[in-house]
Amino acid sequence: ALYYAAKLPLYDSLCTAFCTMPTGGFSPNPENIGGYLNPIAELIIVVFMFLAGMNFVLHYSLLRKPRKILANKELQVYCFLLFMAISVITADLYIHNIFDSIQEALRYGGFQAVSIMTTTGFTTADFNVWSPLSQIVLLSLMFIGGCGGSTGGSIKVIRIYVLLKYIGLRIRHILYPHAVFVLKMEKKPISDDILQGIFAFVFSYILIFGVCSIAMTALGFDMISATSSIAATLGNVGPGFGIVSANYASVPVIGKIILSFCMWIG
Description:
Layout: H1 10-20, H2 39-52, H3 56-64, H4 73-95, H5 102-117, H6 132-144, H7 157-175, E1 184-185, E2 188-189, H8 192-218, H9 223-234, H10 253-265
Antiparallel strand pairs: 1-2
């Protein structure tokens, strides 16, 4: 599609494809995907980043029973979160005149939202100069990540969804203390072992994020650069904010060791 429809060179098409489905994010173009100035290529990449962020089991269902995947709760939450993020960022970029038209705001805001949430890390614009609202939305997406069973990193949509359902269940239990509630996923009860595993995973994730962020600030980083660098490396996203928005070349050796640890454990 990149070669025939977007007219990219064959080598660039192959390299970009190999970095899209594994949500790797590296590009043979020194200016990343934005360097091509090719809206068709960006649209193709967005589609396949979205597919890469899905559970790969759903790809099989897409071929066999396409209607079945529409009922998948994780996919619904995944699409909803992406839709909300793209809507907020697009409106914010247009209102603050970052781009001249709503189409441009959607083009760049939508691409970056999908790229960050799927933890691909491709870039088409310098989002370091965007408004704080767009930046905090992108930072939040770094923690969510793609679906379970995808090539995406971070906490994963399925864990976020289960935790939200559990919070709702606890609230209902407070309101109706004598009632019996069962936490379910796709009409199947979620065992305590799975729930405890999710709690342990998320707690460990946040703990590592907090400790490593403090360590980066101890090296002299500002709070935005420190927290975003940890979120980006722990979630295997790539680009962060502040001095790490373009690359990590300016990070001192100790900082690189910390970030390498985050990428490895992530």
